[in-house]
Design brief:
Length: about 230
C-alpha cells in the first residue's frame, strides 16, 4: 500500500502502530544509513528480518526491514539512500530523539529452502540478507550489489559477504555478469536454495539465469521485490 488516503494510513497506524524513538542515525558508508530505534515491540516481539512500514507522508507508506534486534525494544534498520522520494526524505530527517511510528504486525519469516544457500540482493536488501545470513548455521554465500563508492567500507564491515560495484543506471548488471560467469565455471553446483531480493526486474533475470541453466527448480528460489524501475514504493 505505497499510496493510500490519509484516513486509511491513520487506521493502519491505530492497529499496527508501534511508538518509536531514534537512538542513533549513522551513515556507515556512502549512501547507507543505519538507524537504531527504541521501539515498542509488536505481537510476538521483534525479530531480525521483521518488515516494518513507515508513513513517510500522510498518504505514502514505505517499507523497511529490521536488521538486528539488540533488546526486546531496541532494533536497527539499514537503509540505502537514493534520490529524494518520500522514504529517502523521511530517513534523512531522522535524528537522535526523533519520535515516530513504525507499523508492524507479527513477524512472518521469509521461506528459504535448502542448506547450501545463495543469498543475492542490492543495497536495499543488505539489512534483510544480513538478518537471514546471521541466522543460517551453514554460512551461506551472500552477494550484494552496492554503489561503487560504498563497496570498500561495506567489505570492511561485512568481510564474509561479497560486494560488487553497481554500474550507474544499470541495476543488477554486475550481479547478472557474476551469475553468468559462475554458472559457466560450474561454481554454483550444489547450491540448493536461493534468495533473491531487491530490484524487481533484476530478480526476474537472476531467476531466469538460474532456472535456465538447469541449476535449480523454481521452487528452490525465493524472491521478494523491494523496488522496481518505473514504480514508487512497493
Ligand atoms: C518488504 C520490503 C522491505 C524493504 N526493506 C528495505 C530496507 O531494509 N532497506 C532499504 O533501504 N530499502 C528497503 N526496501 C525498499 C524501499 O522500501 C524502497 O526502496 C522504496 O521505494 C523507497 O522509497 P522512496 O520514497 O525513497 O522512493 P520511491 O518514491 O518509492 O521511488 C522513487 C524512485 O526511486 C527508485 N528507487 C526506489 N528504491 C530504490 C533503490 N533502493 N535504489 C535505487 N532506486 C530506487 C524508484 O524506482 C523510483 O523511480 C524494502 C521494500 C520492501 C517491499
Amino acid at each position: 500500500m505505497p499510496t493510500a488516503p490519509a484516513l486509511v494510513g491513520r487506521l493502519a497506524e491505530t492497529f499496527l502502530g508501534r511508538r518509536a524513538r531514534v537512538l542513533r542515525a549513522a551513515q556507515i558508508a556512502p549512501h547507507f544509513l543505519e538507524v537504531e530505534f527504541h521501539a515498542q515491540p509488536p505481537a510476538g516481539g521483534w525479530r531480525p528480518g521483521h518488515e516494518v512500514q513507515v508513513r513517510a507522508t500522510a498518504t505514502e507508506g514505505r517499507r523497511y526491514t529490521v536488521r538486528t534486534v539488540e533488546a526486546a525494544d531496541r532494533i536497527t534498520v539499514l537503509a540505502v539512500l537514493h534520490g529524494d522520494g518520500p522514504g529517502a526524505r523521511w530517513l534523512q530527517n531522522l535524528r537522535p530523539g526523533t519520535e515516530t511510528t513504525l507499523l508492524a504486525g507479527r513477524h512472518v519469516p521469509l521461506r528459504v529452502t535448502g542448506t547450501r544457500r545463495l543469498l543475492i540482493g542490492d543495497g536495499s536488501a543488505l539489512g534483510t540478507l544480513d538478518a537471514v545470513a546471521s541466522a543460517d548455521p551453514h554460512a551461506p554465500t551472500v552477494l550484494v550489489e552496492a554503489p561503487s563508492d560504498a563497496v570498500d567500507q561495506l567489505r570492511e564491515r561485512w568481510p564474509r559477504y561479497r560486494f560488487l560495484a553497481a554500474l550507474a543506471d544499470d541495476p543488477g548488471a554486475t550481479i547478472r555478469s557474476w551469475l553468468d560467469e559462475s554458472i559457466r565455471r560450474e561454481e554454483l553446483t550444489g547450491i540448493d536454495g536461493v534468495l533473491l531480493l531487491g530490484h524487481a526486474q533484476s530478480i526476474q533475470c537472476q531467476r531466469e539465469a538460474l532456472v535456465g541453466a538447469g541449476l535449480l527448480d523454481r521452487r528452490a528460489i525465493t524472491t521478494r521485490p523491494y523496488w522496481a524501475t518505473g514504480k514508487v514504493g512497493l
